[in-house]
Design a protein that fits this description.
Largest sheet: 22 strands, antiparallel, barrel
Oligomer: single chain
Strand content: over 45%
Distance between the termini: 14 Å
Helix content: under 10%
Shape: globular
């Protein structure tokens, strides 16, 4: 059970938890390499760190044998760190950065490969691939906010994974691996939690799973969860007066704890051993998430406060059906994986900022009127409908891992679609000013995007000597991106209907003003040398490349954007010391990001994608886990990333000089902090018939920017560095556990993302042509939270 009580700093539960957990000594450690160390030692006993098996290279391997920078959080570590969602596990992966505008709208970056703060529906594909088991689940709308329960591990593969994982794994890959059905075993668990959030409300969750054998050759695993997340952003009373004299007043939407969320979902997995060589594993997972309000606040209004004027909701529902078949043909392992994902997002968003701040510049509010000719409130309200589908198929064969020469080869196909509707409504707008067929719609985007990927790939390894291994890999690919439909205003503007060249192709559009398709082909490759110093230590050198396909600009007057590429040079080490009671891993790397894709807002706040030139990225990643005694485990992990422009950027100008440079050479790339680290100390002991534990975790990251352009940085400001600390204590007896957690113990207001709701110079502060701007939103981490969790298993 996960449970919560009101999180007031003066609540009795707060003082109880502070008294219980404040005595915890936070030693140096908590790292993203998450072996199930606290639960396991080696077969001979002692303090050895337990072995963690990963499938980063599409084979089952001990993480210490993988000659690559792989960070992993196993089942025990996910539970120990109180991980329940995307935001929770990302903070313990040092090489991973992210920006989040709320549930379901988080975008992932690795090793500094980030250029912008946009994840527009008609923009670039992500540079980091996300997988659920064997199936890719990456969407432009953001990473799926999968509830983390009964998960075997989360793996983060740093650097280009182009040969094995393809197009959207240019900078790395994140894999979420579920626990599989166990044949011949009947078991289950139930957990519940209640929690209270400072400055906010109460939340709760209930989770459970059961594993049921079906004869001696099959089993089913059923998992379910329900969660209510407390709000902590307040929508406070305010007004805005337009140049027309119209006043917006949000009195009817004033609400405390505005940003609540409810999540329900489940997973069903069936495993059938057809015989000793062949296994099939069909899986169905679904989740429904409904949230209200926004998850950022306006510091000018107040801490954790906004003034918004129109309803804001988000309904994100998705399912994925998949099938994995594993078997043998002679001594070769064959794997087929196929999946179909369907995701629908229905959203409402207040866009009053756009109306108000543009009116500050152009005094344009009086232009909007109703059918009677009366001037109306020009505040805009965005109603969005996003429908994603993704179908993927992969088949591969692999020779035995014990062979001196071994290989893996396969074929991959993926087709992903995105039907985009963004309906910008002005309530009461006249028919004459509305987009034809769309009542009260000032601007309409109604488009169909399709991305297709085809690839053949392979990797081969040869043991030159018992200590030295050479690995080479290549992926040959073809990408196809198309975008068709309508975008723009009614006929009284220079876009929209006036640009149409054909009748409606996408249903429910007035006509077609965009229909473009681009195709690209190429290859990506990898070379690796690994030297085993002894049975517990290895060093390696890797040269690898990654890519991201080009695509169509949604502004039909602009050319398509080209693919970008990442060249990676990396030296790494995996080492175990003192009988593997101390593990120290790390990597030093240099990446050159070539012709990188950059998104920015152009005229009418319309996203433009341009190729911005090159960037250089230098970095170090390292992690340590140490068990000085059987009871005490210390973990630590860090990443230093120095990512900078290698040349001036001038927003696509033909000639780039000091007069039009918008981002100069040497400027730090956005999103990624230069330094990110985490540390955890966990102590376990017996108290009579009880097993007890105390744990402290610390996460630190330095400052970062949320945008690349200099003027945007002046308007948005810099995201300062921050440190957060969590404390946990609990007891267990027989099959029952009780745990009390104090999360974000010192109520640190970390800034995860800074943004404006339209073109930054208008809406965030600098302004143009006399405009003032002024609404910068800050997405914070969750305030101090006290949680009580009770669980049982059988």
């Amino acid at each position: 059970m996960r449970v919560a009580v009101r999180g007031s700093a003066k609540s009795s539960l707060y003082w109880l938890s502070a008294g219980l957990l404040g005595s915890t000594v936070l030693a140096s450690g908590s790292l993203a390499y998450a072996a199930e160390a606290t639960a396991q030692a080696d077969a001979g006993g002692g303090n050895a760190v337990g072995e963690l098996i990963v499938t980063a290279q599409k084979r089952e391997e001990n993480i210490q044998s993988v000659a690559a920078s792989v960070q992993a959080l196993g089942t025990a570590k996910l539970n120990e760190l109180h991980v329940v969602n995307f935001n929770d596990y990302i903070k313990y992966l040092p090489s991973v950065s992210y920006q989040s505008a709320g549930p379901g709208y988080s975008n992932v970056y690795m090793r500094g490969v980030a250029a912008d703060n946009l994840a527009n529906h008609s923009g670039s594909l992500p540079s980091v691939g996300t997988y659920l088991d064997e199936q890719p689940i990456t969407t432009i709308g953001g990473a799926l906010d999968i509830h983390v329960y009964d998960i075997a591990r989360v793996e983060a593969l740093s650097g280009p994974q182009g040969t094995l994982y393809g197009a959207s794994s240019e900078a790395g890959t994140i894999r979420i691996i579920t626990n599989k059905p166990e044949i011949g075993v009947l078991k289950g668990a139930m957990d519940g939690e209640i929690n209270g959030v400072d400055h906010g409300g109460e939340g709760y969750s209930v989770e459970g799973f059961i594993n049921v054998p079906l004869g001696d050759k099959a089993a089913v695993r059923l998992v379910g969860w329900g969660e209510h997340d407390a709000g902590y952003i307040d929508n406070v009373q305010g007004t805005r007066t337009f140049s027309s004299g119209i006043v917006s007043d949000n009195a009817q939407l004033v609400q405390k704890d505005y940003n609540t969320a409810n999540i329900y979902g489940g997973r069903a997995e069936l495993k059938v051993d057809l015989n000793e060589n062949w296994t099939i594993l069909p899986t169905l997972i679904a989740q429904d998430e409904r949230s209200n309000g926004i998850f950022g606040f306006d510091p000018k209004v107040g801490d954790l406060q906004v003034q918004h004027f129109l309803p804001e909701t988000n309904h994100d529902q998705w399912y994925q059906a998949s099938l994995t078949v594993q078997g043998k043909i002679g001594n070769l392992d064959l794997t087929y994986s196929g999946g179909h994902m369907d995701r629908k997002i229905t959203s409402e968003a207040d866009y009053t900022d756009y109306s108000y701040f543009y009116d500050q510049v152009y005094m344009s509010a009086a232009r909007y009127h109703n059918n009677h000719g009366d001037i109306i409130n020009p505040s805009q309200w965005i109603i969005g409908h996003d429908h994603f589908t993704k179908d993927s198929h992969e088949i591969r064969i692999a020779s035995p891992a014990s062979d001196r020469f071994r290989f893996l080869a396969g074929l991959f196909y993926q087709r992903q679609t995105h039907h985009i509707i963004q309906d910008y409504v002005i309530q009461g707008l006249s028919d004459a000013q509305s987009v034809p067929g769309w009542s009260q719609t000032w601007w309409l985007t109604n488009q169909q995007r399709i991305d297709r990927d085809y690839a053949a790939f392979g990797e081969a390894s040869y043991d030159i000597t018992p200590q030295l291994t050479f690995t080479g890999g290549v992926r040959v690919y073809k990408s196809d991106n198309s975008l068709v439909g309508f975008y723009g205003f009614n006929a009284d503007h220079g876009t929209g209907v006036n640009l149409c060249f054909a009748g409606p192709i996408v249903p429910n559009t007035p006509c077609t003003d965009l229909n473009t398709d681009v195709k690209y082909t190429g290859e990506t490759h990898k070379l690796n040398l690994t030297y085993h110093l002894d049975g517990s230590k290895l060093v390696y050198f890797t040269y690898s490349t990654g890519f991201r396909p080009g695509g169509v600009n949604r502004n039909g007057g602009l050319p398509p954007y080209r693919p970008d590429f990442l060249d990676n040079y990396e030296i790494g080490w995996k080492t175990g010391w003192f009988g593997n009671s101390l593990i120290w891993n790390g990597a030093v790397f240099y990446d050159r990001w070539r012709d990188f894709q950059f998104q920015y807002l152009g005229p009418n706040s319309l996203t433009v994608v341009a190729n911005a030139g090159n960037a250089n990225i230098y970095g170090v990643e390292s992690n340590v886990i140490w068990r000085p005694t059987h009871a005490l485990t210390l973990n630590a992990g860090m990443a230093y990333t120095d990512a900078k422009l290698a040349q001036d950027f001038c927003n696509g100008a033909a000639v780039c000089d000091s007069s039009n440079t918008t981002a100069p050479k040497g400027e730090q790339l956005p999103v990624t902090p230069k330094f990110k680290a985490n540390a955890t100390a966990r102590y376990e002991w017996e108290m009579g018939s009880l097993q007890a534990h105390l744990q402290g975790s610390l996460v630190y990251q330095s400052s970062s920017w949320s945008d690349l352009l200099q003027l945007d940085r002046q308007s948005l400001g810099k995201q300062p560095g921050y440190t957060t600390v969590d404390f946990t204590g609990g007891i267990a007896r027989d099959n029952w556990t009780v745990e009390l957690s104090l999360l974000n113990a010192f109520d640190t207001r970390a800034q995860l993302y800074r943004y404006a709701e339209c073109t930054i110079q208008f809406c965030a502060g600098v302004g143009v042509a006399g405009g003032t701007g002024g609404a910068v939103y800050v997405v914070p981490n969750r305030p101090r939270t006290i949680a009580l969790k009770i669980g049982t298993k059988f």
